[in-house]
Design brief:
The complex is a heterodimer of chains A (about 525) and B (about 550).
Chain A: H1 2-9, H2 14-47, H3 52-93, H4 101-147, H5 149-196, H6 198-204, H7 206-256, H8 263-277, H9 280-304, H10 314-324, E1 331-338, E2 342-349, E3 354-358, H11 365-372, E4 380-385, E5 388-389, H12 395-401, E6 402-405, H13 416-421, H14 429-438, H15 442-446, H16 465-479, E7 483-487, H17 495-508, E8 511-515, E9 527-530, H18 531-535
Parallel strand pairs in A: 3-8, 3-9, 6-7, 7-8
Antiparallel strand pairs in A: 1-2, 1-4, 4-5
Chain B: H1 2-30, H2 34-78, H3 82-85, H4 90-133, H5 142-189, H6 193-228, H7 231-242, H8 247-256, H9 261-288, H10 310-313, E1 317-326, E2 329-339, E3 343-348, H11 355-362, E4 370-375, E5 378-379, H12 385-391, E6 392-395, H13 406-411, H14 419-428, H15 444-457, E7 462-466, H16 474-489, E8 494-498, H17 502-507, E9 510-513
Parallel strand pairs in B: 3-8, 3-9, 6-7, 7-8
Antiparallel strand pairs in B: 1-2, 1-4, 4-5
Keywords (chain A): ATP-binding, Membrane, Nucleotide-binding, Transmembrane, Transmembrane helix
Membrane topology (chain A): Multi-pass membrane protein
InterPro entries (chain A): AAA+_ATPase, ABC1_TM_dom, ABC1_TM_sf, ABC_transporter-like_ATP-bd, ABC_transporter-like_CS, P-loop_NTPase, Type_1_exporter
Amino acid sequence: MTSAISNTQAGLPLAARRRLARVTLGWVAVAAIEVTAYASLGFAILHGGGAAPVLLAAAAALAATVIVSRQGYLAGARLAGDLYGEMGAALARAKLSWFTAEHRALVTAAAGRSVPTFMGVPAHQLQTLVLSPMIPVGMVVAIALVSGPAPAGLVLLLLGAALTVQALAQRGLARADTRRHEAERRANAATLELVDRLELLRTAAGPVRALERAEQAWAAQETAMARTNRAAAPATLVSQLASVLPVAGVLIMLWLTGGFTDPAAALALLVLTGRASAPLDDLALIGISLSELGTHTTAFREVAAAPTLPRPLGGVADAAGGAASHAGGSIELHDVSHAPALRAVNARISEGERVHITGPSGAGKSTLLGLALRFDDPDHGEVLLGGVPLRSLAETALAGRIAYVPQEPVVFTGTLAENIRIGKPDATDDEVRGAALAAELGAVVRRDPRGIDQPVGSHGQGLSGGERQRVAIARALVSAPPVLLLDEATSALDEATEQRIADEIVRRGSTVLFVTHRRADIWQPHATIDLSRTDTP
Amino acid sequence: MPALLLAVLAAALAGATALAAIWGIVAMISEPSAGGVAWICAAWVGAALLAAASSWLAHAVEATFEARLRRTVAGRVLRLPAERLSDYPADRLRRLVSDDIAALHHMIAHLPSEIAALVVVPAAAIVLLLTLAGPVALLALIPGVLAGGVYLAVLPPLSARHGAERGRVMGEITTAVDDYARGIHVFRSFGNDSGALATYTSATERFTAGMVAWVRRVATPAAVAVALLQAPASFAIAYAVGAANDTSTLAAILLLSLALVTPALRLGHGLDFVAAGRAAGGRVGELLSEPALPTGGEVLAGVLNADTVLAETGVSIAAHAITVRVNDRAVLSELTLTAPASSITAVTGPSGAGKTTLLRVLAGLHTIDAGSVIVGGTSITEISEATRADTVLLVPQGVAVLAATIRENLLLSAPGASDAECASALSRAQLGARLDADAATLSGGERQRVALARAFLSPAPVILLDEPTSALDAATTGRVWAEIEKLAHVEGKTVVVVTHDPELAARSDRHVALASAQLPSEPELPALGPPISGSSSPSSPQHQSEAGTSA
């Protein structure tokens, strides 16, 4: 169990671990005080004593619980802050090639689910985790003091038996449940597929057949669920019986030994045994709740451990930055290989040259552009910008020299100007307008009285696919970089618009690396890198 | 429903039987007997049996309910008209089909035991306590009443406002982190990811600060409630009240003093279930009240068995004076178009001219404000939804594939196709991949060809293609186009292609050019309309943790 707890804690920042430790200690103290209160109640019943000590002990238990609960709630809220901070730092460090669609979903899950789940640990779970094992043990000691060692021994045995039966019942249930978990996972995946591939399913299969796919997974899950439910009924029965076992055992023992001749002593023992066995249900479930916590928080731990690229030391970066400023716009590829597709690519692109990167699907065109942007370091070989290896360029120095227009334009909720200004945060309105016009967004700017300050809808939904591409191009143009990387940047534009944008970019004279499956000649390339040839030695 | 009532009854009886066992213990203290011990143990066994039966029944009922509900919801999502889908972004749909259905399911599953624990058992316990120990004994119930009061009256108003606020900030966090992860390549390549990170950081800081401020306010009452629910408080009062009485009365007061604590303990969670269930019910109701695509009833002759003589009969598709408005902006206006069988009709036009909308209209997936779409003499709305995709197949522009084998992806459009037929369709689409290859690992261009292969496999006489070659190189495009020509000219299919490639448009049999703005009457260009971001703000996250609201 301890290993399960420490496993859950792995990957947490130090401040968070300290908070958890403080709350844990608090609950240990509460357990001790609570047991003392029960013991004083037992003594009072036994000897017919006054109510004052009982009330006093109960008040102490009450106060301690209030203080620790409160501390637990606050610790939960602050823990969220620690974890969000840690996540932000991890995202800022992570290498760009890590941000795949899959990992993006992971990041959203970590922020939306894992962190809130962690928040409940000090607020709720720690109380159960600490009190449910400590109270029964403490109560056995209290019974030994109040009723004597023999009844204490019996209660200990009965508690052990009850716990074993409970644990066995839960294990049996869990076994019956394993197949349901798998079926449930499939059913959920089928449900999400229905939503995420809605257009595909509606068009390719129609509403009736589209449901058939999910139907299979759902039916399997419903069968598994029914099986679990059948197994759960006897498990509920057994666990209910186990929870009354200690009191029942003591009752029978009292009857057999004539213990009821001293009703006060009998009552004291029964009350204390009742409290000793109360946390057994929770105790039997601790393993399950810990493993659930583990699965809920995997997303966070995976994000916190996102891979990074080595960063240049400050001094090197400065020197390199200075060196690079001489020939900022040249790119060299030295024997660059990167899984899965790129093998031993060599190229030398001088400042102001335009180069067409070509090759069949999957030849690594986008990967090559990504390496020039240092989304990742190549498995083998080196990429040089302005004569300086990317590995020794500071991130800001790299960003200042290269602008990139991706295959899928990324547009954010906000205005046209806000979206374009990402390319150059301090750009004036005129610069932004100029870039918008250069990227053939004039018609869009004119159709709304708010001009460049018109909103683009949620994630740019107010714009068409081609308009979103032009926003991404305007963003690159406003930053006016020495090097421009275009990855199918104009695939959704009509030819005339594409031609005008190409003319504008040619006129600007920056170094351009571009991927297109359309007419390459409008970009007036100086050279072509054909990746299909690097495949065959 | 009767099964659910039976489950409530069993749960209530289980609680009452457990109380009877306590009564038996009290009796043992005053008059011990062997029969008493047997009676108590029998009551315990009975209570356990009843509880197990109740739980089994409740889960069986709830499983049936969930099964029906998710089919209804999914069916409705699949039948939403395309223009309504924009109000249902993926987040919202995901929440509807998974979290909301789960919330309703939990509400029903826990209802019987909640009713028993919150209503029946406490009432019976109070009656028993009054009978055995008299009205003074009720003082021992004070901690339970106080805790219940905190959960019922103090915390909800404090939490309601915060709950909404927390949901909003949580939504901001997930949006910020999603935006950050989505745009990180852009941000970092322009050297200003600090800005986007700042949005995330400020959202999380606001969340934490709001959380801490709220917890500060509710922590004390919530902690007091938690503390009151620990047995020492109830026991101490019970002892103070009962110490002067005989031992059996003291036993009754002590053992029944927790009667209200257990229900109060469940009050927090029980109310959460009900609140979550009601909110989910509202959202599901909203979806179910959306308009749905017509189900139709007609089956075009020869559509269901693809081997019939389609080539001879031919099925043309025609749009008559169709007008489509979205947010009061005319996307298509009085457009008339006829695409005859055995020919390729190309549709071109600048972006925003409504090309994609037109194809959706032709496929019967988009509501039209005026006009009609006629397929082989029958209105598209009258064609049975079960065969609509087998009559008019739309291959949309997106390159989405199912995360499954290529074969499974192809069988979507032709469930009965053999491996040989699938392989032939793939090769006609110029994709040399194995049928059992994982479609999710394919590149954009390869996925596009998987989608295209459906057009060669489907029995549908009318094929609508939206930018079918946008991700293909010139050589592949040429070969694919030759196959599309064969589809029309040799196999007699009606093919409508949206393309921005003028060469392909020129090679088509017919060419329809849509004007840039479909605005015949109004001279002034209307503004794009206010941004819909306000109404389609990201749905609040599903798992808002429950710090402080319950114990």
